[in-house]
Amino acid sequence: MYHEAKHSFQSHGVKFSNLEVDLPAMLGQKDRAVSNLTRGIEGLFKKNKVNYVKGTGKLLSPSQVSVDTLEGGNTLVNGKHIIIATGSDVKSLPGIPIDEKKIVSSTGALCLSEVPKKLIVIGAGYIGLEMGSVWGRLGAEVTVVEFAPDIVPTMDGEVRKQFQRTLEKQKMKFMLKTKVTGVDASDSGVRLTVEPAAGGEQTMLEADVVLVSAGRVPYTTGLGLEDLGVKMDKIGRIEVNEKFETNVKGVYAIGDVVPGPMLAHKAEEDGVACVEFIAGKEGHVDYDTVPGVVYTHPEVASVGKTEEQVKALGVDYRVGKFPYMANSRAKAIDDADGLVKILAEKETDKILGVHIMGANAGELIHEAVIALQYGASSEDIARTCHAHPTLSEAVKEAAMATYDKPIHM
User: Fold this and answer.
1) Burial zone of 34 (CB within 10 Å; 0-12 exposed, 13-18 middle, 19+ buried)
2) Over the stretch 250-289, which tens digit does the pLDDT of each residue have?
C-alpha cells in the first residue's frame, strides 16, 4: 500500500503530503492477522472435537507421544495412528549464526524494529525474494547474493528473466554465481565477505541486516524417530509409501517432512489424503498439478512443466504468450508488468504447463490448475468466455496464441 501510494496515486489524481511508514502499526496489523488466523484454527479444533495439546512432542512408541506442555508439565497422548506433520525449519549456513536481530531468518525478517537502510539477502529463492521485495518497497536498498547462476532455479527460464528484470527496475540488485565466505556482525551492522562461486577475488559488502534464506529443511529433530527406526532419506526426509505410511506400522508422515514441494497447500492435500487412507477410503494427491506462487509484486505463479522440462522430455510442443501490456484491465489499473505463457503438446494441444507473471498471478493460476487436472487443451480455455475487463482475459489470449493466434495482439 505504501509503495503504491508513493509511486502510483499521483498519476491517478490522488494527492497528499507527509506520506510515511508507521512500522509498529504495520507490524501490529500483521500480528493481528496471524492471531486471528491461528485462533480460527483453534475454533475449528473445538468445533470438530479435536483435543489440542500445546507443547513439544516425542514418539515413545508407534502408538504413544510424550508431550512437554507449554505450562511446564508432561502428558502422554495415545493413538492408533500417528501422523508426523512437523513441517520444516530454516536451513542454516555454516559460519553464519542467526540472531534474529542483525542476521535474521524469514521469521526475524517479519518483525524488524525498523526499515533497514541496506538489506542483504543470501539466497534468491521464493522466500528470499518475497522478503527482499517487502523491505525494498518500504525503502530498503536490497542486494540479493545467490550461489547459483539464476534466481528461483525451478522457474521457467523465460519468465525468470523477465521477473528478474522487473525486480531490478524496482532497484533490487543481484549478485549471482557468488558465495558468502564470512560474516561479521557488530552493533553498527553486518559485514559480508563474498567471492565468485568458482573462486576468485574477495569483496566486502556492508548491510544493516542480513537475511539468510538458503532454503528449508525437514523438521524431524527430537521427535524420537531414530529410536523407533523410522526410515529417512539422505537429506533427512521421512520415507513414505503412496498411502503416507512410514516403515513403522501406525506411523504416517505428510507435508514438508516427506518428498515433494515444501508448500502449505501441498501439505494440506497430503493430510487429507493420508486421513482418507487411514479411514479405509481412497486418497490422492497429483503433485504435477500443485501450483507454486512467489508473493512478490508482481507475483509469479506456475503449474505443470517449464519449457526446459518439456524440451528435456523430447515432446513436440507449442508456446503461446500474451503480455499484460495488451490487457485492458492491467493497463487501466496501471499495473501492466508481466505475461502469461502456456505450453501445450503439439499433436494433441493438451496443456503441459502455465506460467504467469503479473498482478494477481496467484489467483489467475487456478484456472490453469483445473485445466491441467482435467487434461484440457489450450483451445478449451481459448473458447471459454472470460469477462471483460479482467486480468483473466490474458490467460484466454495466451491460450488462443497457443493453438492459433490472439485477438488483441
Assistant:
1) exposed
2) 999 999 999 999 999 999 999 999 999 999 999 999 999 9
User: Using CA atoms, how far apart are residues 79 and 62, in angstroms rounded to an integer?
Assistant: 8
Cβ-contact 183, 95 below 8 angstroms: yes
- Please give the C-alpha separations between residue 297 and each of 227, 289, 373, in angstroms, as whole numbers: 46, 23, 27
Q: Which residues contact residue 152 at a Cβ distance below 8 angstroms, ignoring those fewer than 6 apart?
A: 124, 125, 126, 129, 160, 163, 294, 300
**Known catalytic membership, residue 12:** no
Q: What local confidence, expressed as pLDDT, does residue 366 receive? A: 98
Cα-based distances in Å from 195 to 77, 94, 129, 178, 182: 51, 16, 21, 6, 10
| Amino acid 77: pLDDT | 97
**What per-residue confidence (pLDDT) applies to 167?**
96
- One DSSP character per residue, 342-379 reads EEEETTT-BEEEEEEEETTHHHHHHHHHHHHHTT-BHH
Candidate list 7, 265, 284, 388, residue with the active-site label? 388
Contacts of 383 (CB under 8 A, 6+ apart): none
Whose cell is 500500500? That residue is 1
Tens digit of pLDDT for each residue in 344-396? 999 999 999 999 999 999 999 999 999 999 999 999 999 999 999 999 999 99
H or E segment and range at residue 389: none
Which amino acid does the sequence have at 53? Answer: V
pLDDT tens sequence across 61-111:
999 999 999 999 999 999 999 999 999 999 988 889 999 999 999 999 999
Q: DSSP of 107-119, one letter per residue?
A: HHHTS-SS--SEE
Cβ neighbours of residue 170 closer than 8 Å, sequence gap 6 or more: 133, 136, 137
| Full-model pTM | 0.94
DSSP string, 127-183: HHHHHHHHHHHTT-EEEEE-SSSSSSTTS-HHHHHHHHHHHHHTT-EEE-SEEEEEE
The grid coordinates listed for 312 are: 528435456
pLDDT for position 409 = 80
CA 150 to chain centre: 17
Decide: 224 and 132 in contact? Cβ < 8 Å: no
